[in-house]
């Protein structure tokens, strides 16, 4: 029987291509390349051949063996990568569903109000300044014309800090600032120190603290924005005009403002400012006035040369008015049904 190595190779390669599993490939390898295979068996007939024929057949057998080995390798790697792809497909984690369910958050209504106020005042030529929430008694009261034991201190229910455990603080009484007014002093001292002013036109938004029980109109932690203008020849008219421009820019052209005489230790004269409500009534918004000479001095300025006005009001209260919120506590209970309205 003569067997043609080339024919074995063609037949075997086709079988490898058709193989559907690694086990099948293994079987075919034994069949075509193993010790019992036709190719291996052909070696036995070598001794009957002439050297020249032996050479020819030998190289045909090698070529056939190489071809079969390649076919086996090819088929095996095809099956392996198909198996890997199938495994990856079953192990794939589909995240699209989770993504589709996620809701997009947004800034808290108080943050929105805060940022809107900064925008309005910046468009009017003010810059934004800030100061620390832990203040000294001097910045929060004394420098604002409220010496120790001044009766008006009782207007601010203050949370004092026990600083006796903190080394190196000296005699300074620390407290949580009860208003943003100490940033007035810090802004004046800063401007004098770095030579950037006066003139000074700043607003100072920030968090403030009072020893108060939360109710519909009070929060122990809330937000204020302070305004301070220091320049030459500033008058009460500038103050009234600034407040009116602000009210129109923030609430709309149909709204107006009025000043009512009042008392604050750091301004003289002092006023409270109200805005008109839709029903013709007036809503109290904040305090203001001409900066007291003692406050200018505490800020390092000469009251003969400089004058100014200041104002301050609650950011939470303003948001309450603007959005018609009944109870200030809604802002801090973090009920998503409430917050997602804004
Ligand atoms: N600091 C005052 C308060 O918290 C508000 C205030 C009143 C600020 C008059 C001012 C001002 O700048 O001029 O009650």
Provide the descriptors you would attach to this structure in a database record.
BirA Bifunctional Protein, domain 2; rod-shaped; 342 residues; seven-stranded mixed sheet; two-stranded antiparallel sheet; single chain; alpha+beta; binds 3,4-dihydroxyphenylalanine; 2 domains
Topology:
Layout: H1 5-18, H2 22-33, H3 38-42, H4 51-91, H5 96-101, H6 109-123, E1 127-128, E2 134-136, H7 137-140, E3 174-176, H8 182-194, E4 200-209, E5 221-231, H9 236-251, E6 257-262, E7 267-276, E8 282-291, H10 293-298, E9 307-314, H11 315-323, H12 330-333, H13 336-339
Parallel strand pairs: 1-4
Antiparallel strand pairs: 2-3, 4-5, 5-9, 6-7, 7-8, 8-9
The structure holds 3,4-dihydroxyphenylalanine.
Residues 179, 181, 226, 264, 267, 287-289, 310-312 line the site of 3,4-dihydroxyphenylalanine.
Q: What do you see in this structure?
A:
With about 350 residues, this protein is α+β, with helices and mostly antiparallel strands. Helix content is about 45%, strand content about 20%. The chain has helices spanning about 5-20, 20-35, 40, 50-90, 95-100, 110-125, 135-140, 180-195, 235-250, 295-300, 315-325, 330-335, 335-340, and strands at about 125-130, 135, 175, 200-210, 220-230, 255-260, 265-275, 280-290, 305-315. It has a seven-stranded mixed beta sheet. A two-stranded antiparallel sheet has the order 2-3. The longest helix has about 40 residues, at about 50-90. The mean pLDDT is about 90. The protein binds 3,4-dihydroxyphenylalanine. 3,4-dihydroxyphenylalanine (DAH) binds next to β8 and β9.
């Amino acid at each position: 029987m003569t067997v043609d190595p080339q024919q074995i190779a063609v037949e075997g390669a086709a079988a490898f291509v058709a193989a559907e599993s690694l086990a099948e490939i293994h079987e075919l390898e034994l069949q075509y390349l193993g010790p019992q295979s036709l190719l291996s068996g052909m070696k036995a007939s070598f001794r009957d051949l002439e050297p020249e024929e032996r050479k020819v057949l030998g190289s045909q057998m090698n070529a056939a063996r190489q071809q079969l080995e390649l076919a086996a390798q090819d088929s095996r790697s095809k099956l392996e990568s198909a198996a890997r792809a199938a495994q990856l497909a079953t192990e794939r984690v589909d995240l699209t569903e989770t993504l589709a369910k996620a809701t997009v958050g947004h800034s808290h209504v108080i943050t929105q109000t805060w940022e809107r106020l900064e925008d309005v005042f910046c468009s009017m030529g003010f810059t934004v300044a800030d100061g620390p929430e832990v203040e000294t008694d001097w910045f929060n009261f004394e420098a604002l014309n409220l010496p120790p034991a001044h009766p008006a201190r009782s207007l601010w229910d203050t949370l004092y800090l026990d600083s006796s455990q903190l080394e190196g603080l000296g005699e300074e009484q620390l407290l949580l600032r009860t208003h943003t007014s100490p940033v007035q002093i810090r802004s004046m001292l800063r401007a004098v120190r770095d030579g950037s002013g006066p003139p000074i036109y700043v607003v100072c938004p920030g968090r403030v603290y009072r020893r108060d029980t939360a109710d519909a109109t009070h929060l122990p932690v809330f937000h204020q924005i302070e305004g301070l203008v220091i320049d030459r020849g500033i008058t009460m008219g500038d103050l009234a005009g600034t407040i009116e421009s602000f009210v129109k820019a923030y609430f709309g052209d149909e709204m107006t403002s009025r000043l009512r005489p009042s008392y604050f230790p750091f301004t003289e004269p002092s006023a409270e400012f109200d805005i008109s409500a839709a029903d013709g009534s007036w809503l109290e918004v904040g305090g203001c006035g001409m900066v007291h000479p003692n406050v200018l001095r505490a800020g390092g300025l000469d009251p003969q040369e400089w004058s100014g006005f200041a104002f301050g009001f609650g950011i939470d209260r303003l948001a309450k008015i603007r959005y018609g919120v009944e109870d200030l506590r809604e802002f801090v209970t973090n009920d998503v049904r409430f917050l997602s309205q804004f």
